[in-house]
Design goal:
The protein is mainly beta. It is built from 2 helices and 11 strands; from the N terminus they run αβββββαββββββ. The two termini are about 40 Å apart.
């Protein structure tokens, strides 16, 4: 029993540490997080009814501008290097009162841009003739100084409430 209490306390402490790193952000507001100007905007609001309960549906947009004074790049070592995909995320907005109903979001993540290169390879057409084909391949991810990246999501919250959003950096320094 003591072990269970210690584990519960540890999990609570870790959860609180994650919340402390996050900053609250309101509609139309811009906050600075590690040199990134993060703007959160409500694009659309509508009232909906789900299973005889009223909710407010918000379409939101997150915009991140790199004001850090440096560019960020991730190069993938091989086609099986999946670590780059998870490391390419820079900012996360967490809507604490979102319900997640109808497969909507509770979080919104903004990721770096994909660096695509075209690879030319030989293949055969339907007649058996050798031809050249082009395949776009992701070689890495980037976020240049001064660049702006945007992403949107749908949050469903209880009727009469506005989204309660906290923002935090996902970059490992």
């Amino acid at each position: 029993m003591k072990w269970t209490k210690k584990l519960a306390f540890l999990l609570l402490f870790c959860g609180m540490a994650a919340i402390v790193k996050a900053q609250q952000i309101k509609d139309g507001e811009t906050v600075n997080i590690n040199g990134f100007a993060v703007t959160y905007t409500v694009v659309n609001k509508e009232k909906i009814n789900i299973k005889d309960q009223n909710f407010d549906r918000y379409k939101v947009l997150a915009s991140v501008k790199n004001n850090s004074g440096k560019s960020f790049n991730i190069r993938l070592a091989s086609s099986l290097d999946l670590s780059g995909i998870s490391n390419s995320k820079i900012i996360e907005l967490d809507c604490t009162n979102a319900t997640g109903a109808r497969l909507t979001s509770k979080k919104l993540q903004v990721s770096m841009k994909s660096h695509l290169i075209n690879v030319t390879y030989a293949t055969k057409d339907k007649d058996g003739k050798t031809i050249s084909a082009v395949l776009p391949v992701t070689a890495g991810y980037y976020f240049d100084q001064g660049q702006v990246i945007e992403n949107d999501a749908i949050f469903i919250v209880p009727a009469g409430e506005t989204p309660q959003v906290a923002v935090r950096s996902l970059l490992k320094n």
